[in-house]
Amino acid sequence: KQQKAMEQRLAQLEESCRQKEAERVDLELRLTEVKEKLKKSLTGGMLGASVESKPTIK
């Protein structure tokens, strides 16, 4: 009985871990996108125009 509870808890933790990893990947992709936009604006000299535009959030 105790082993069954431990296996169930392990399954819950693994699922939680998968969700957190997916969230981390999403945040990393969004961060990369922001960095790219910032780099483009800095090299293009259009920082003011870029800052005023609204960011797209999924």
Description:
The chain has helices at residues 2-44, 47-52. By secondary structure, it is an all-alpha fold. The chain has one domain (2-51).
> What is the terminal separation in angstroms?
43 Å
Radius of gyration: 20 Å
Estimated share of beta-strand residues: under 5%
What is the number of beta strands? 0
How would you sum up the major sheet? none
| Class by alpha and beta content | mainly alpha
Low-confidence stretches are: none
**Average of pLDDT:** 86
**Helix content class:** over 70%
Helix and strand pattern: HH
Inertia-based shape:
rod-shaped
How many separate domains make up the residues?
A: 1
The number of helical elements comes to: 2
InterPro entries: AFAP
Keywords: Cell projection, Coiled coil, Cytoplasm, Repeat
Subcellular location: Cell projection; Cytoplasm
Coiled coil: 3-37
Task: Lay out the secondary structure.
Elements: H1 2-44, H2 47-52
